[in-house]
Design brief:
Strand content: under 5%
Radius of gyration: 17 Å
Oligomer: single chain
Structural class: mainly alpha
Distance between the termini: 33 Å
């Protein structure tokens, strides 16, 4: 139950962050993607900020002995970039662009 509540709260915070940053506004996202026209770089600052927060949080999490809502920390092993990964990324990009 604690893990489900943690997942819900994390998703809620993430969605509120997306809404505040404007990433849910199609016009703003299209302006960010239009690098040869009327380019709006503001979403780039949101992404750079998120990378900064993540890099600090990741290091803090690794220092803990045990996660708050789980029994052990589960960090996936790095894998090679393979064909299914590339195809999945392309399909995700097409779907996101169409959406």
């Amino acid at each position: 139950m604690k893990a489900a509540l943690g997942a819900y709260l994390t998703g809620l915070i993430f969605s509120v962050g997306l809404a505040i940053s404007g990433m849910t506004q199609p016009k703003k996202v299209l302006a960010f993607l239009d690098v040869l026209g009327n380019w709006d770089p503001s979403l780039m600052f949101v992404m750079v900020g998120a990378i900064g927060v993540y890099s600090i949080a990741y290091r803090l999490v690794l220092k803990k002995e045990k996660p708050i809502l789980e029994d052990k920390l589960q960090i996936p092993e790095p894998k090679k970039v393979d064909k299914p990964l590339v195809i999945g990324a392309i399909l995700f990009g097409i779907g996101w662009g169409l959406g």
